[in-house]
Structure formats: C-alpha cells, structure tokens
Amino acid sequence: MNIFIEKFMNGVGIFFIVYLLVYSTFIFLSVVTGGRSLFRKYKMTRLHNELKHDYYVPVSILVPAYNEEITIAATVKSLLELKYKLFEVIVVDDGSTDNTAKEMIETFDLQPAYRPIHMQLKCKPIKKVYETKIGQVRITMISKENGGKGDALNMGINASNYPYYLGIDADSTLQGDSLEKIVRPVLQDDTIIAVGGLVRVAQCVKIENGVVKGYHLPWNPIISMQVVEYDRSYLASKILLNQFNGNLIISGAFGLFKKDVVISSGGYDNQTIGEDMELVLRLHTYCRNNDKEYFMQYEPNAMCWSQAPSTLKDLMTQRRRWYLGLFQSMIKYRNVFLNLRFGAVSFISYMYYLLFELLSPAVEVFGIFTILLALSFGILNVPFMIQFLVLYGLFGAFLTMTAFFQRIYTQNIKINVLDIIKAIVMCLLENLFFRYIRSFVRITALIGYKKKKGQWGTIKRVKN
Amino acid sequence: MGFYIDDLIYLYIYLCIGLILFNIAYMIFTNYKEGRNNSLTNKWEIDINKQINLLKEGKPIELRHKVYLEKHLIYTNQLVAYVRALDILRKQGHSTESYLFANYKSILFLAGKYKNEDVYDRTFFAFFISINTPCNGNEYNSLMEILLTYLDNSNIYCRENVLKALYAIGNLQAVENAFLIMYEHNYFHHYKLLSDGLLSFTGDKEALAERMYKYIQEWDENMVIAVIKFITFTSDKFKERFFLLLKEEEDINNEVRLAIIRYFRNHKYEPAHKLILEFMRSTDITDENIKIVSASVLGQYPGIETIKVLKEALKDPNWYVRYNSATSLINLNVGTSKLQDVLNGEDVYAKEIITYIKGLERKVDRL
Fold first, then answer.
1. Whether the predicted pLDDT of B26 surpasses 80
2. In chain A, which residues have their Cβ closer than 8 Å to the Cβ of B8?
3. Do A49 and B80 touch (CB under 8 A)?
C-alpha cells in the first residue's frame, strides 16, 4: 500500500512540477513580451509613428444596460466628450426594473420616435424607442423586453447606422482619445475585424472632460488588488496572444467590431453568460471555417476605465460569472481543441485557457486532496510545502509588480511614493491572498449553474 | 526534481527583479531625459529665433547654425527637441517658413543621413518634413527623391508620414511617384488614409486629379477608390469620363462602381441620372449595394421619373434601399400629398419607413 501511495505521490509530484513549470514560463514570457511591446508602442508614440487623421470611420457606440440608473447618465455624458468626429450612441435598456430609462429620458430630453429597426439579428421585442441629437451626436435609447446582455447587444447592432460598433459597459468611462485609438488599427489593416482595448479600474482615476487628471490607488484593498491584477492580466496574456491572432476574449467593457462580420457570424449568443468570449470564439470559428483572412487586434493604448466591485460579495459574484462564461464558451467551442485548422489559437490560446483557467479549480482541488492524503500517510514535507507556497506567491507578486510598473512608465502616469508602497503591498496580498479567493469562487462556481445561467450579474454601482 | 522547479522559480524571480530594476532605472532616465529635452528645446528655440530675426533684417543665416544643425540633428533626440522648438515659435506667432527654406541644404543632408536609420527614426524625419516643409512643390527636387526612398522596407506609419510630407510640399510628380511605388510594392494603405491625404495636397489639386486619373484602370481597387473619392471632392471635370466608365466597363469592380455612382451625387450629370434610374429598375444587379447607393444619389436628381422609381423602391425587400429611397424622397421635397398612395397603401414596410423619415425631418425643423 505504502509503495503504491509513494508511486502515486511521485506521479502527482511530477504532474504538478510540469504543470507549474509550463504555467510559470507562459506567464513570465507573457509579461516580458508585454513589456517589450509596450516599450515599442511608447517609442512609436513619442516619434509620431502613428496614423493621426481628422476623420476615421464612423462608429456606433452600444451601451447595453440593465438596472444601471446610477451610472448610465454619467456614462453617456462621458461619451459626448469623446474627441471623435462621427459617432452615435445607442443605449439598450434590457427591461430594467429600476429607473434606467427615466434617468436617460430626463437627462438627455429624449423624445419617443417611431423608428423602424432592421432586425438582422434575433432579439426580444422592442417596447419603445427614444431619440435625440446633442451637437453632432445622435443618441438613441431602445427599451426592450429583458433578454440578457447578448440579446441587448444584438438589438444595438440592429439599430446601429455605422459599419463598426463599439460595445461598452454601462459603467465604463472612456478617455477623450479612446475611440480614436481603438479605431486606428482598422485603418492599418483591412483584415482587422475586431479590436480590444485596455480595461482599467475606474475607482483609481480622476477624469475631467475626457482627460486623466489624477491616478491614485484606493485604500479599499478589494479594489486595489484588482488594479494590480488587471494590469498583470492585460499585460500578460493579451499582448502575447495578440502576436499570433490568438486572443480569445475581447472584453465586453470595451471592444470594437466590424458589424457585417458579426452579423454574418450570427451575432451574440443570448444564452451565454460570457457573451464577449463567446463572440470572439465564434468569430475565430466563422472566419476559419469560411477561409476568411482576419485579425483580432489588441490595442493597449486605447483605454477604458470600468468600475470594479468594491465588496468581496460583489467581487465573488463577478468572478463567478466570468468563470461560468469561460466554462460555457470553452464547452461550446470544444471543436477548437487540438484542431489544426485553428493553429496557434487551438494549440496555445485554447490550451492555455483550458489548462490554466478552466481546469485550474479541478487541479487545485486535486492538489488539496493529495496534500491531505500525504499528510494522513505522514509523508508530507510541511516546511518544503510552506517554503514552496511562499516562493510561488513571491514569484507571482514580482511578476505583478513588473507588469504594474511597466504600465506606469509606458503610459506616463505619475504616481507618488505612497501609491508605490501601496502597489507593492497589493501585489503581495494579491498573490498570497486574493488568488485563493479566486480559486474558491472557481471551485464553487458551477453550484447552481443551471438555475442562474441566463441572468445579468449585478454588482453595486457608485456614481462616477 | 522538486529542486529543479525551485531553481527555475528563483531564476524567474531574479529576472523579474531585474525587470523591475530596469523599469525603475528607465523611469529615472526618462525623467532625466525629459528635463534634458526641455533644456535642449529652449536652446534650439533661442538659436532659431536669432536666425529668424537675422532673416527679418535681410541678413543670411549664420554658417555656424547650419553646421550645428548638420552636426546635431542626426540624433533623433535632438530632432525631437528641434521640432518642439519650431512648434513653440509658430505658436508664438513667428513664421518659420523662410527660415526652413534657407536651411534646405542642411535638411537635405539630414534626409540623406536618416535614410540609413531604422524605420522609427525615418518615420519621425518624414513627420518633421510634413509640418516643416523646407521647399515648395514647384520643382521636383532631391529631398522628394530621398523621401521616396524611405518607402523601401517601410511600415504603414512611415508610408503615411512620407505621403504627408509630400502632400505638404505639394509637388505633383513626387506624389505620383509615391503612389506608383506603393502600387509596385503592393503596399496596403487604407483608401480613407489615401483620399484624406490627397485632399490635403497643397499644390494644384485639379492637376493632381488628372495625374491620378491616368492610373484608374491600372491600380488596385483600394487605390482607385481613394483616387475617385479624392476627385469627388476636388473636381467636376470628370463627369463624362466617369459616366463612360460606368456605362461601358462591364468588368469594373463593384466597390469602384459604387464610388463612381457617389461621384454623381456631388456632381450632377443628366446622362448619369438615366443610368442610375436603370440601376434602380434592373432586376439583374446582383450586388444590392448598387441599388442602395443609387437610391441615395437620386435624392439629388429631381424629376417625375425619379419620384416614381423611388416610390417603387420603398417596397424593395432590402431595408437600406427602402431607407435611402425614403430619405431621397424627403430630400426632393416630395410633399405628403404626393406620398398619400404610399401612406395609405398596404405595404407596411414602405409606410413605416416614410413615416419615420418624415418624423426625423420634423425633428430637424424643430431643432
């Protein structure tokens, strides 16, 4: 029995060593590649290596909203401050039970409109359409029956007038130049069908008239930890995966898409929680199945500031949704797994999300189980285990610090000494504490899945 | 084996610490450089101002200054400071044109030096020329020739800045050559960038339109669309030629065809009117965009036939054809009385779209 356990534990040891080795190397390479890429972008901007024009392509900005009475008006006001010549704003009120529609109507003096909408994508029925024009910007609000975020976005696409649309969250704030920067890649290469921007935490920034006026890490550790986490995750995987058109997620909080391709691929799936990841996987599948040359670009200079959950409960709700979204999309597009047609998308991107995101709860539960097993047989080297956990946590913390400081210097953000200290502490806390909350949420995410899979996730909002 | 992963993680940690130290050192260096650049900019500002004043007094630029330019501006950091200084002086109301013209030879020398630099630096030099043109476009000269060589092994940003520099100088031959190089090298440059750029050409735009038109049957679709869009906003002298292309060239690319039809929205031409009406009536057209654009263009061509065709198009199965037809009918000031048959008719789609467009019109009136 002991020989069997010993052999089993040896096998487990080798598995975890290989698993962690691959993961650490991937994350390390991601951060190094990301840093290099940001440095190059910084140099290019300084030397005017950019496409600066007065006019770009016209864009429809789609804002799906469900019970967003607190933030919706501020969000739309921030959109009106964008420095961009031709765009429209379409707010889709997805059957809110609060005063989202009333807030919009009163703030912008919206008028009811008898507007026929070209229903190219299926979605729940319209209740009422409102319109107005402020300056050169047409604002449309469509009140419809509740159908989920994907359904609301499909309605927005149907009502949009322009060939590209930008999907943002109802609590997102864009910088004045965000739209211009996210559109520029489209002019570089006509095979680009989508562009993802950089999403950052809104609570640490002060924006006036579309310009960042101050940057401070909040005292709330839940928010601060997310600040450093966002910096690492956006710098880490996204830039590396972008090198070979391998991004599988363009955040719903800030993503530009070519409308006709999205319509041809069938639009958003309204049965999925993670509609943003589902759409990107759908576009990969659609373009590859139809031999269509395409590229989905990540543009780190285009920035959007989105509210992060400020309580542990909200954070867990959000992460649960993210994990379920990942689960649904990965299962739905399982044909991408080890599929030569998908190349690096299959063998690197899909594999990364499968092994290190989707299956990580199972691996972690298995790890805990084997620790308990080893303990019960008295073969657990406790000091080594603690030393290893601390070492691994420190590695993660150093990587996060690297990502955070690279972001700071390449984007000319000025931070004070207190913020630097806070950032270092948060990097340590994030890796030694926060990652275990994430793991717990993932492990428990599938409980009650069937009951809650179609719902909008709500978190407490505060005014921007 | 556990020790191997330990060692690897230690290695990664050391590398991360190295990266963090690099970041910190870089931040300090950047701050230092920023301060140094500011003082360099001030220095350039004073020196350039002195030379501008000399020119105002009718004296030539000091030889020392020219030597200094050629010695220092070969470094990109110095060039960045120099560009900033020129910018500041312009904002203060100084004219830098004659100063730059007087330094043509030094700038030509620098252009030659930057030719051998990496693409980022070349791109910046082209940017410098685009806002600080040291010559006019009357004659094709060596600076233009050197700028054209920048297009070899270039990226999109370099091409964009070289084109901007050539548009700013305003020489026909140089722009024509640049387009020929782009075509020969099969470089992709979005038609929107090209057409907007051509519109910023500072020389004779009509003459440029004529030059560009020569290649309309030769270049790829992207470049041709750019040229047609440029001509659309520049000249009304191409009505007949475009009409013949539209009528007689059956193999013409659909996107190019659409661009030509749009030309006739800006420049009315009666023979084209008849052809566009035919497009609307035709049942053979496979690309629905032809009808969509035609419906929109007809809004500029009043007439009984136009109204009849547009009213018929309100029943078209394509939503955009109906939308554009309704918009055109309203643009043609077709009153409600003349639309009664549509408003009281049984075609729900036609009724719906015309009611909406009329509603919009009322809102515009109210505003």
1. no
2. 21, 24
3. no
